[in-house]
């Protein structure tokens, strides 16, 4: 472990490929689980993302009357960029794309960018269900964002640094998840909420005919679907240096451990996501402010006391 | 408001940094231009959504300029807060501005003449101030921040120290109290909240408030 090395910009291509493969993987897992739950063949379900990609690439883009095309393009493009911005500060073993001194805050800023992207994706088509989806996301964001922020703070306080590499290096032997499990659970809740899928993120739910996704078609839809899978993966990847000890582990090299941990956490999130009940935004607000936020604050208090006592 | 912020960024620009490379100077200037142009476009577009997010873009440029000035933490937090604030503000703008809800194209200006005079006058005052004030020359590099902090960390630390000084602890105590007050106010005022649903004792036994 120890210091991380900042690599040249072109390596972002490798990050994009890894992110894309992982996004395809979680979508395939999701498809397989959905197919099995519906009594169909899991392997056919696992092929669903590839089939859907082929279909969407050939589909002609559908437009709506008086749509704000510019803002829709911003949202669709942003969905591809945001996960990359998140993983840019995650060290892959000893290499990192951007060794930012405030990497933890950077991640937080990008997850707030998701608010903007989802709302713009909802606003862009000038259609009722899309707009409803965009508003729902913001309502939900009020519930998960503040607990998420404090959950991000806990490992940073323990490490005494906002640099992601330092946080990863600060947990030799004992990963943060062991002694700050509440922060980890709150963080994972936030990841499930900002990845625009599943019960904790009803912005694109079936109850509102697909919400922000309702009017998206063709390549636009493909990019947003890929982007939200990428957000889940990026959230899982960021948890690795923050809570799961970064690249530390026996036998395998650091970079491989980071990939393995990311894949396992992302898969676990996909499985858990299918088990959770639908939560309406206003009920999620009560949960967020009366359970998640106090829990995250108490966790932060415990971590701070431990840090003070230890020093 | 964005214009005022851009002015502030240009004020910072004129403070000579010991290691201000040409590249950084170009970056800060370009970001300042982006901030001013996107800020001005807020008043040219006819859609509340575009106006809101142009303002967000303006603030993001300001935040990036602050990062370029080695205040990494402050700059990224400016981006974070402004994206969040504009996302929420957009909702309120659409809800409250214009002829009921501003979902339709609408003008972003009113009282044009008075607004132009006020904007022009404040620009002149600020610009004259920038040019006339005898800005102190930086005499030394920022002192060391907390142990292990980077150059950006040290600059942020000394900025916070210069702004807050002895009052830092007071501010840090007051801010959660203020947040708690705001949250409590919203919880109590909310007609559909759990107090309205479940009664004052939150047990669902007494009929509290409206249902």
TrEMBL record, chain A:
<protein>
    <submittedName>
        <fullName>NADH-quinone oxidoreductase subunit H</fullName>
    </submittedName>
</protein>
<feature type="transmembrane region" description="Helical">
    <location>
        <begin position="12"/>
        <end position="33"/>
    </location>
</feature>
<dbReference type="GO" id="GO:0005886">
    <property type="term" value="C:plasma membrane"/>
</dbReference>
<keyword id="KW-1133">Transmembrane helix</keyword>
<dbReference type="Pfam" id="PF00146">
    <property type="entry name" value="NADHdh"/>
</dbReference>
<keyword id="KW-0520">NAD</keyword>
<feature type="transmembrane region" description="Helical">
    <location>
        <begin position="284"/>
        <end position="309"/>
    </location>
</feature>
<keyword id="KW-0472">Membrane</keyword>
<feature type="transmembrane region" description="Helical">
    <location>
        <begin position="137"/>
        <end position="158"/>
    </location>
</feature>
<feature type="transmembrane region" description="Helical">
    <location>
        <begin position="255"/>
        <end position="272"/>
    </location>
</feature>
<dbReference type="GO" id="GO:0009060">
    <property type="term" value="P:aerobic respiration"/>
</dbReference>
<feature type="transmembrane region" description="Helical">
    <location>
        <begin position="222"/>
        <end position="243"/>
    </location>
</feature>
<dbReference type="GO" id="GO:0003954">
    <property type="term" value="F:NADH dehydrogenase activity"/>
</dbReference>
<keyword id="KW-0812">Transmembrane</keyword>
<comment type="similarity">
    <text>Belongs to the complex I subunit 1 family.</text>
</comment>
<feature type="transmembrane region" description="Helical">
    <location>
        <begin position="70"/>
        <end position="92"/>
    </location>
</feature>
<feature type="transmembrane region" description="Helical">
    <location>
        <begin position="104"/>
        <end position="125"/>
    </location>
</feature>
<dbReference type="InterPro" id="IPR001694">
    <property type="entry name" value="NADH_UbQ_OxRdtase_su1/FPO"/>
</dbReference>
<feature type="transmembrane region" description="Helical">
    <location>
        <begin position="178"/>
        <end position="196"/>
    </location>
</feature>
């Amino acid at each position: 472990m120890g210091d991380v090395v900042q690599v040249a910009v072109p390596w972002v291509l490798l990050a994009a490929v890894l992110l894309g493969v992982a996004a395809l993987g979680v979508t395939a897992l999701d498809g397989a689980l959905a197919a099995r739950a519906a009594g169909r063949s899991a392997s056919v379900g696992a092929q669903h993302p590839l089939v859907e990609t082929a279909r969407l690439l050939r589909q002609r883009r559908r437009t709506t009357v008086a749509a704000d095309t510019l803002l829709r393009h911003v949202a669709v493009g942003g969905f591809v960029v945001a996960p990359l911005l998140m993983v840019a500060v995650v060290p892959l073993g000893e290499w990192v794309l951007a060794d930012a001194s405030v990497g933890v805050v950077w991640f937080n800023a990008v997850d707030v960018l998701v608010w903007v992207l989802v709302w713009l994706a909802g606003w862009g088509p000038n259609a009722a269900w899309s707009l409803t989806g965009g508003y729902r996301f913001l309502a939900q964001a009020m519930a998960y964002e503040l607990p998420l922020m404090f959950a991000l703070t806990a490992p940073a306080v323990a490490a005494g640094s906002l640099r992601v590499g330092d946080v990863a290096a600060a947990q030799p032997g004992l990963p943060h998840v062991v002694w700050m499990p509440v922060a980890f659970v709150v963080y994972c809740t936030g990841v499930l909420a900002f990845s625009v899928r599943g019960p904790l993120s009803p912005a694109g739910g079936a109850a509102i005919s697909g919400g922000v996704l309702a009017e998206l078609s063709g390549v636009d839809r493909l990019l947003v679907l890929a982007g939200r899978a990428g957000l889940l993966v990026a959230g899982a990847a960021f948890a690795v240096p923050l809570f799961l000890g970064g690249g530390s582990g026996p036998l395998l090299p650091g970079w491989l451990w980071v990939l393995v941990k990311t894949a396992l956490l992302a898969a676990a999130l996909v499985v858990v996501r299918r088990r959770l009940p639908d939560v309406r935004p206003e009920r999620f607000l009560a949960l967020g402010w009366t359970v998640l936020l106090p829990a995250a604050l108490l966790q932060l208090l415990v971590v701070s006391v431990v840090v003070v006592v230890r020093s | 408001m964005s214009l005022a912020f851009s002015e502030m960024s240009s004020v910072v620009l004129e403070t000579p940094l010991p290691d201000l490379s040409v590249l950084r100077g170009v970056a800060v200037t370009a970001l300042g231009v982006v901030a001013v142009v996107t800020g001005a476009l807020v008043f040219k577009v006819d859609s509340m959504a575009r106006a809101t997010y142009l303002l967000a873009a303006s603030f993001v440029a300001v935040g990036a300029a602050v990062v370029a000035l080695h205040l990494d933490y402050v700059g990224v937090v400016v981006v974070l807060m402004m994206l969040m604030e504009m996302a929420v503000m957009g909702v309120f703008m659409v809800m409250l501005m214009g002829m009921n809800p501003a979902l339709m194209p609408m003008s972003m200006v009113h009282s044009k003449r008075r607004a132009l005079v006020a904007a022009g006058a404040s620009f002149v005052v600020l610009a004259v101030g920038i040019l006339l004030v005898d800005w102190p020359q930086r005499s030394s590099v920022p002192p060391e921040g907390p142990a292990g902090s980077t150059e950006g960390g040290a600059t942020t630390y000394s900025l916070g120290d210069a702004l807050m000084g002895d009052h830092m602890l007071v501010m840090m105590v007051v801010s959660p109290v203020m947040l708690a007050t705001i949250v409590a106010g919203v919880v109590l005022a909310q007609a559909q909240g759990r107090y309205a649903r479940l009664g004052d004792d939150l047990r669902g036994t007494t009929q509290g408030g409206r249902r």
